[in-house]
Design goal:
By secondary structure, the chain is α+β, with helices and mostly antiparallel strands. It has 15 helices and 16 strands. 50% of the residues lie in helices and 19% in strands.
């Protein structure tokens, strides 16, 4: 970086064409030139490093300067300044150290004004100061928007991974059941033919129907262990052998809810090949219905996940403040994060006060708040830990408390927990933006957020304003 020889008049003329400052009075532009130094940077040169104190205001005359931030996966360009922009420290700005590096993307020329001149600049250059203040506000919005977009992309990645995991199980179950269903239908058809050829009496057919009803009366609650399955199949094989029947039916019968009492009742009315055909027909019918039920359950699970994600993203609603059901949003968020919680055997419990009023806010933003807080709690608790979400009314506000039994947050860390780019997670696992954005979103929704922590208990509390009474009166 070097100073360039150029007359003051040339610089003022060049400033007069500057996108931001060019319309300011010429005497103010002359003041800027008189108190600034002209500098040049080659491509790749670093204007300022991450963490270094910012002491200058830079008026970019030519070239491009990018702001790169490393959040664990390598430097990423977050902002780009072009001729007509102003960067660095601005009057009234509270910036101390920048979150990233400013690097020249092209050969760049700019004016540098030291912060020691800011008080005089404000007094002598009213138009310039006003333009810089407006630009600072616009820059803050751009940075906030960039941070929010980045955090949304991180949240989207987590959501996609969790959703893919959740959808994989019911999809695999449907594929498995559909593949087995064709074979079971063939078995059912063959068993029906054999049973029809047995010329059973009306009383015997009624006994067969009763046995089949016992098979399908209730599916086994829970999942049998391999040992339980083997023992049940062996018991059916022994019963079939004792009655001189085909022992290969043992596997099919053991997978049903039929009891030995039902089998004994049927054997009292039918024997021989007819009994064999009746058992085969009953087992095949029960298997077909069981597979159909598995497909239906899995399809309903997929439908439930889609509805939960739709509710979580709030993608079918306009981005406007409205009465929002907090408990429903929490439920959708927990469904979306269920796979991650289940992977650590974590219990997530919701204790909501009955008849809670809705809050006034932006549904999508509130769901992002719940997602960040619950996701952080899942990361914080140990395997088989517990997260409790308590929702109740406190005057004209609704309180949502996310409580976990993790190791807790040290006091010195608690003081900085909401600072942007501050994270306690390992490199590459945290952006340091989650809680900063949570606080911004809570404020945007008219609420406040606090944290209390000690070993074994960390509590984040969000207080949100109740929706107006008129909108609550018309609540469905």
């Amino acid at each position: 970086m070097a100073d360039l020889p150029m007359t003051a008049t040339d610089l003022v003329d060049q400033l007069a064409g500057h996108k931001l400052l060019g319309s300011a009075p010429r005497e103010e532009l002359e003041w800027l030139v008189a108190h600034a130094s002209l500098r040049q940077m080659d491509t790749g040169a670093v204007l300022r490093k991450q963490g270094e104190m910012v002491d200058n205001l830079y008026v970019l005359l030519s070239g491009r300067i990018g702001v790169f931030i490393d959040r664990g996966s390598g430097p990423q360009k977050m902002l780009e300044w072009t001729p007509g922009d102003v960067l660095g420290l601005l009057p009234y700005s509270r910036m101390g150290t920048p979150p990233g590096e400013a690097i020249a993307l092209d050969p760049s020329v700019f004016l540098a004004i030291d912060r020691s001149h800011f008080r005089e600049l404000i007094n002598e250059c009213h138009e310039v100061a006003s333009k810089l203040v407006h630009f600072m506000i616009d820059r803050a919005r751009a940075v906030n928007s960039s941070d929010l977009h980045n955090e949304k992309m991180v949240a989207l990645g987590k959501l996609s991974a969790g959703l893919a995991h959740e959808l994989n199980n019911p999809v695999a179950a449907i594929e498995r059941a559909a593949a087995l269903l064709e074979d079971r239908l063939d078995d059912s058809e063959l068993a029906s033919r054999a049973l029809g050829a047995s010329n059973l009496t009306a009383a015997q057919i009624a006994a067969v129907d009763a046995a089949r009803g016992a098979c399908m009366a209730a599916r086994h609650a829970g999942v049998r262990s391999p040992i339980e399955t083997a023992e049940r199949e062996e018991a059916f094989a022994d019963w079939l052998d004792d009655h001189g029947l085909d022992s290969t039916l043992a596997e099919a019968l053991s997978d049903t809810a039929v009891t030995f009492d039902a089998l004994n009742t049927l054997a009292a009315d039918i024997d021989g090949p007819a009994l064999n055909a009746a058992l085969r027909w009953a087992a095949a019918g029960c298997s077909v219905r069981g597979l159909a039920s598995d497909i239906q359950d899995s399809a309903m699970r997929i439908s439930g996940l889609v509805l939960a994600v739709k509710g979580f993203t709030h993608m079918d609603q306009a981005s406007v403040a409205e009465p929002v059901d907090v408990v429903r949003g929490l439920s959708n968020t927990i469904t979306v994060l269920e796979a991650k919680a289940r992977g650590k055997s974590i219990t997530v419990a919701v204790d909501a006060e009955p008849g809670l009023p809705r809050v006034h806010g932006f549904c999508g933003e509130l769901n992002q708040i719940w997602s960040n807080l619950i996701d952080n709690a899942i990361d914080a608790v140990p395997a088989s830990g517990r997260i409790e979400i308590v929702v109740n009314r406190e005057g004209q506000r609704v309180s949502v408390r996310v409580i976990d039994n993790g190791a807790g947050i040290p006091a010195q860390v608690c003081e900085r927990i909401f600072e942007p780019f501050f994270t306690t997670k390992p490199m590459g696992q945290g952006t340091g933006l989650g809680l900063d954005i949570v606080r911004r979103l809570v404020r945007h929704n008219g609420g406040v957020i606090t944290v209390q922590s000690q070993p074994g208990r960390t509590e984040f509390q969000v207080l949100l304003p109740v929706a107006d009474l008129e909108s609550e009166a018309g609540r469905p």
